[in-house]
Amino acid sequence: MFQKITALIDQKLLRFILVGIVNTLVGTAIMFGLYNFAHCSYWFSSAANYVLTSILSFFLNKYFTFQNKEKSIGQVLRFAINIAVCYLLAYGIAKPLTLAALHGAGEQLQNNIAMLVGMCLFVALNYLGQRLFAFKEPSSNDKP
User: Residue 35, exposed/middle/buried by CB under 10 A (0-12, 13-18, 19+)?
Assistant: First the structure.
């Protein structure tokens, strides 16, 4: 089990982090800008972030991070499913957790912290989902 976990810590993780930095800068501006300046809702602001940056993420992670050569609609669907599941889990966990932890604080502060917590949860879940599901390398049994 330990070997499987340590196998996930390699150059691909470093490239994923670099792509993540770009996505985080763009996505954070979108999400917090929509919420705080355009006065959009928590869910709209965070969803807009992930819809827009997921398009960028797909291409950067496919070609740069995982250097994946597969061209199929199945891969696009796996990526979209991964993003949707990670988003729903991360933000679905972050909001009630933050509301409970910051009970009594202002709604805007609670939602800003919830979005930050959601971002952190999303990154971890998304790396695992992209590496093990969306851009999974064929096992030695699957290779021709």
Answer: buried
